[in-house]
Amino acid sequence: MYERIRSLREIKNMTQVQIAVLLNCSQRIYSNYERGEVDIPTEILSKLADLHQTSTDYILNRTDRKEPYPPSKKDRI
């Protein structure tokens, strides 16, 4: 999982500082996420998936399908 969030960040050509600002956390905390030194809270995981337009399952290595899931019916209303 940790390699994926680094790879996704690098694909967007963003720094850890830029991602940390968007996640409202420090660069040090974000760096800890990328190195796997701390678990990523669910709220941050969801924000990362939205930011990178992918699914949490992709970030968690549960799938290799990078595309996000389609919105649920309740989200379409």
Automatic annotation (TrEMBL):
Keywords: DNA-binding, Plasmid. InterPro entries: Cro/C1-type_HTH, Lambda_DNA-bd_dom_sf. CDD domains: HTH_XRE. PROSITE patterns: HTH_CROC1. The keyword DNA-binding applies. Gene3D superfamilies: lambda repressor-like DNA-binding domains. Residues 5-59 form the HTH cro/C1-type domain. Residues 62-77 have a biased composition (Basic and acidic residues). This is Helix-turn-helix transcriptional regulator. It comes from Paenibacillus ehimensis.
